[in-house]
Amino acid sequence: MNAPLPAEVLKQHLIDPEICIRCNTCEETCPIKAITHDSNNYVVDPDICNGCMACVPPCPTGAIDNWRLMVRAEAYGVQEQLGWEELPGEKALPETAAALPADDVPAATDLAAPAPFSAPGATVPPWSAAHPYVNLYTHKTPMTATVVGNYRVTGADTESDIHHIVLDFGELPFPVLEGQSIGILPPGVDAQGRPHHARQYSLASPRDGERAGYNNLSLTVKRVTEDHAGAAAHGVCSNYLCDLAKNDKVQVIGPFGHTFLMPNHPRANLIMICTGTGSAPMRAMTERYRRRIDTGENGRLLLFFGARTERELPYFGPLMKLPRDFIDINLALSRETGQPKRYVQDLIRERAASVRELLADRNTCIYVCGLKGMEVGVLDALRDVTVQGGQDWSILHDALRREGRLHFETY
């Protein structure tokens, strides 16, 4: 049984700046606003953190899972942490604290009563998912990849400039799974003169490569020219990637992600819900299924894909060529001329019978990827579909999360 720590000792929660990819997941997840950041680091305020652990499972790299036994009065403050380039070593404790047996170091739940927290999706992978490798390459030891392809996958006459970029790793290992992501280190420095931090991108290709049997992978990248409010903004990494030419070299770290993974067992069904570049992991999973289409191992694929128009929908041409008995495609177009405005949640409700049928099968996993704002709409639609079928959504939702069958990757 864990013994309480002496009053003067704190088990301080820290974020490793060498592994952190600044994806903001921890800050968004923290229920008590204990995590903050500046242009350099994400840090945990020791005066607020209660060790509830809500931020730990969603972190794609594990950078969040670091702890130090500290004299409370000497805890690392927010400003000190913001200036770090690496985690400090362990500090020696006073004899009264150091005498605490190692087995008595408390779990986070012993630190304080955790704040209530309920993630919208699972924090564990599907039970049959393959084992992922993470953090093989870091900011200090990045991998160099070669650009072997860069293609625009949206209409040239549209504002949405989305590119399909293929990176080759040559003879060096870079094992990935569908649903994982990598970090790209753009060249140059930021306004403070520090090297740019990595930007995270989901893989758009399956585990055996963009081209089967090759040591390469692909990304789906949208050129950022404005922020969410519509003001002019220059995305440092997105513009760098979209402007790359064949044979250019790119610094890559990762891979990342240990929960947003597709199931590995035969006959698994996938409900995929995405918008824009959120299509990347869905393309990876769909391509994995397509390559084994003749094996009889595939379950059903149900896709809900949202964009403003067909010409702004990445991969529209190849997607529409897939056999309809292989994948059930539902397009939600919000600004298509002559058509009513529709979003993915509208189509989920329209296809309620098919969604309920798949939800009734425990071999079904749901994946949602796109803008953060779509989470509520998708959850509401799934709840409505479930309630219409006479089921209790709260019970089903809990089961989907617990069993690793409902996953969100939003930004």
How is this structure best summarized?
The chain is 19% helix and 22% strand. The chain is an alpha/beta fold.
Q: Roughly how many Å is the radius of gyration? A: 23 Å
Helix content: 10-25%
Order of the strands making up the biggest sheet: 8-7-10-5-6-9
What is the helix tally?
10
Secondary-structure element order, N to C: EHEEEHHEEEEEHEEHEHEHHEHHE
Structure classification: alpha/beta
Shape: globular
Describe the SSE topology.
Blueprint: E1 9-14, H1 25-29, E2 35-37, E3 42-44, E4 66-71, H2 78-82, H3 95-98, E5 143-152, E6 162-168, E7 181-185, E8 199-202, E9 216-222, H4 236-242, E10 249-256, E11 269-275, H5 279-291, E12 301-307, H6 316-320, E13 328-333, H7 344-350, H8 352-359, E14 364-370, H9 374-388, H10 393-402, E15 406-410
Parallel strand pairs: 11-12, 11-14, 12-13, 14-15
Antiparallel strand pairs: 1-4, 2-3, 5-6, 5-10, 6-9, 7-8, 7-10
